TrEMBL record:
Residues 83-211 form the DUF4232 domain. Keywords: Signal. Residues 1-26 form the signal peptide. This is DUF4232 domain-containing protein. It comes from Streptomyces plicatus. Residues 28-84 are annotated as: Disordered. The keyword Signal applies. Residues 28-78 have a biased composition (Low complexity). InterPro entries: DUF4232.
Amino acid sequence: MANTSRPVRRTALLASAAALLGLVGACGSESSTSTAPRPTQAPRTTTPDPGAATGAATTPAATAAPSDTAGSASASARTDGRCRTGELRAEVGRVDPGAGQRNFPIVLTNTSDRTCTVRGYPGAAFVDASGGQLGPDPVRAPSSPGTVTLAPGKSAWAGLSFSSPQISGARTATPAALLVTPPDEHDPIRVAWTAGEVPVGGDESSVKVTALEPGTGP
């Protein structure tokens, strides 16, 4: 009987060797695939938050509004137009006699809380106790009127003058008051008149008034 075990064993060994070679090839192929270089991913960058380090808010709503202190100071210093009758106090100063003349300062004082201006001649009229005017309106003395700025509490004055009735011989009357009207206003301020008689007619009876200037008189 022939011996068949040797060829069978050789065949089995050859098959095992072939399987082993195939396994090695497969492993080599898988290894080369897994070690292929991957695409490089660009690193992510983040922009730092300027408010994060300081804790300050960066929204427009949190921005502090600029101070209006300078604007308030500027508004308080500005001039807001002419002085109104209701913002002024009128007074007649002491008589200043000289060279046959009687001279009086008419003083207007700003009693308001704003700065205002006066310019030109005040109106003036002597009246009796019932309000009737005594004599003609005063004549404006030649001058160059300027704008006078009156801060609260400050004054401007105009001169009121006439010839002494004892010298001129003019017809006279004793007023109860002098009505003083600020420039460009219609409402007068009534000031009690305590300086005696004034000329109201006849020779040398003219009463003169000068333009306003800063201060309370000479």
